Amino acid sequence: xxxxxxxQRRQSQLTRGRLPSYAIWVVVAASLILGAAISSLVxxxxxxxxxxxxxxxxxxxxxxxxVAEGERKAKDKLVTFLVYGAFLIALIxxxxxxxxxxxxxxxxxxxNFLFTSMNGVTGAVDNQAxxxxxxxxxxxxxxxxxxxxxxxxATLISVPIGLLTAVYLVEYGAGKNxxxxxxxxxxxxxxxxxxxxxxFAAALFTLLFGPGTRTGFVAAVALSVLMxxxxxxxxEEMLKIVPNELREAAYALGVRKxxxxxxxxxxxxxxxxxxxxxxxxxxxxxxxxxxxxxxxFASSINWNVFSGWMSTxxxxxxxxxxxxxxxxxPDPSTQRAWAAALLLILMVMLxxxxxxxxxxIFAPKTSR
Amino acid sequence: xxxxxxxxxxxxGRAGDKIFSxxxxxxxxxxxxxxxxxxxxxxxxxxxILSADPAEVTGGEGFAAYILPIVIGTIVAAxxxxxxxxxxxxxxxxxxxxxxxxxxxxxxxxxxxxLAAIPSVIYGAWGYIILAPQLAKGYAWLAENxxxxxxxAGPASQTGKTMxxxxxxxxxxxxxxxTSLSREIFLQTPNLHEEAALAMGxxxxxxxxxxxxxxxxxxxxxATMLGLxxxxxxxxxxxLVLSPGALGASLIKTGxxxxxxEIALNFPEAFGLRLNELIAAGLVLFVITLIVNMIARFxxxxxxxxxxxx
Lengths: 368, 310
Known about the structure:
The complex is a heterodimer.
Chain A: H1 2-10, H2 23-42, H3 46-69, H4 71-105, H5 111-115, H6 123-132, H7 141-172, H8 177-189, H9 194-209, H10 216-240, H11 244-252, H12 257-285, H13 289-294, H14 313-322, H15 331-361
Chain B: H1 3-46, H2 48-51, H3 62-99, H4 102-117, H5 120-145, H6 163-187, H7 191-199, H8 204-233, H9 236-241, H10 259-266, H11 273-307
Helix pairs in contact in B: 1-11, 3-4, 3-6, 3-8, 4-6, 5-6, 6-8, 7-8, 8-11, 10-11
Membrane topology (chain A): Multi-pass membrane protein
Domain ABC transmembrane type-1 (chain A): 144-355
Subcellular location (chain A): Cell membrane
């Protein structure tokens, strides 16, 4: 009786009726054991163990909380577990994709892969590599060049148009109906399926230059359709956060509006604009579908974007997987595909990092 | 400085002003023109299919009979993706905005953005080589035990290259879109509403349910619609993961096809009428995604005007 009273006195009013903090670890341990037991009944595997443990833990912890702390607290706990679980589930594909690409891509990423094309690499060559155990010949040099050229041309088309449109939207067109229309349709354009952009470019050049016109430039036009809205949106956001005081100070000194924009507004926002452009490049560099319908597929180096078919890294991956060079032994093709995938992911990640770096390091110093 | 030179420079400046505002206006109009011409060029190139002899269209029964199964396939794939991605995407957004430790939340946001940065062809390759064989085991079990439901009718695909696998890969690609948009909206919830709920003794979930979710509902709907737009138009994941075939109810058998994958798989070798046919299919896809996106954008803009959050 006396001991009971001491216990009650030690519990604060605020923490009364709550489970002690170690309770959750007890439930974790119990569900780990129970999970191991159940999964060994069905046939033990680490994945099965993890899944069953997770389910048992969520159920057990919810029930324990419901009994000790009441229904409302139990609901809160359940949602917390589900929200954490959703995040972990979303991480699974990311980790799996990155791990797969690293594991399978690294063996194929050699000097030979980077600096030779697929010119002259036939099924027989691949068969020989498999039978003789010699290194896999052929590489993605032509695809890397194609990617760089097509992306460069797409950037050259999109950046001026996107930048000037954003300038119009922010500096000249505030409040006008045309501005509203452009903003709305730019947003709608971000949702155009990439393959439709490819078909548009293909249809346009078919009308202009006859059917079957497939060159790197057509692909660049298709990519621009995807790239322009991204450039407009990010540039617009950046121009909007340039403080109005800067513009007013320039006007007060008698500076013309266009000089104010080119010499004051854009330089202030340049870090954000550059970062937005980099991100948009990262977005289009991995596009496959529009290239497929506009630039065709090549196995040799093509330096001319205005004539001849061209290959890019994504289409290279696609064709190496779907139609291996040697149908009887697809392993060399798969190896090349993963090496190209690794190269492509590295390019995209590098662009993303550069974008963040540019945005942070060269950000304008504002008083806020 | 004489008066004349001042006047001269003023004139030059005025010309510069006019030219600059002119070209920026031109750039804006050009964008509208591009979107308009996307529609026009696709229509011009698609037109021959409507007047073509039905027997010459693939399938031999006219364009409607050709396009309908792949439209349904597209919608089914997108529906599977959304059923998986919407709850997960919203939960992940909640995790980043309200549940994760403050210091780590930003980093977690970057991690989810990484999911969006991975090119679609790599997801396709991953689905083709890693995911499909894993899921194939599950399909065999489903066909054996739940085969009486038409959706899981056997025989299950041995390779796992089915509609359901394509839907899962699409879901992975849609999650970051739904997450990043919902997260933005969740973070805009007025702090006072949240604090008021907590002060009344609400648990964290009750606070989310009463303050955050009602505020964010339009945002969640439009995020889901934008995710739907992406899932409808996604090409490479489906082209690589699905082994196409005739329309069927079973999600775990080989079969079905989506518009985007149909175009990607057949366009490179197509010529003549087949080319027009595929462009017409692209036009149908364009119209569907345009409608979905316009509804989404409309909800967002309408919400922005009266929310006061911006």
